[in-house]
Amino acid sequence: MPAELISFHGLADRREHLAVRIGKPGRVPLVRLHSECLTGDVFGSLRCDCGPQLHEAIAKIDRAGGYLLYLRQEGRGIGLYNKLDAYRLQDQGLDTFAANRKLGRADDERDYTVAAQMLRSLGVDEIDLLTNNPDKVEQLRGAGIVLRSVFSTDVHSNPDNYRYLKAKVVEARHAIELERAGS
Description:
- The chain is of the alpha/beta class.
- It has one domain (3-73, 110-173): 3-Layer(aba) Sandwich (Rossmann fold).
- Helix content is 39%, strand content 18%.
- It has 8 helices and 6 strands, in the order βββααβαααβαβαα.
- Strands 1-2-4-3-5-6 form a 6-stranded mixed beta sheet, with helices on both faces.
- Strand 5, helix 6 (134-142) and strand 6 (146-151) form a beta-alpha-beta unit.
- It starts with a strand and ends with a helix.
- The relative contact order is 0.17.
């Protein structure tokens, strides 16, 4: 799989985000906005679906040609340490969103302005988007990126992340068909 890492300077949040060009992107590339998840992406945590979504996105983009935007927005933007504190609260019975609120944080603090900036820098203003998250769709459209199509990721459910996925459906309207997964 041919891939190229692309770094950026001067983004709105001044963080170090990466684009990974995978394959040969067409005029309307397949794009995945993937927020950093150290526990899921690197350590294979079963508490979330981040690692499986990352691997799925890479495989699909490899077939279609496009970009993986790896965004430094750990824990829905609350950072690694707050995310680990939220895990402790989840172990006490709170869902992922209630845990964030208990920590005094928003349900989701991510801002996808940088994703739109990155796409424009790459010369891309129309995409096919791979996501279950309606907030990504709304924010990209609000930033002037044209979405030709939106494709849901597969359901990556297991006994350890079912409550997490259910909360994403109920609290944030994610397009995850848990019934299809048989959980």
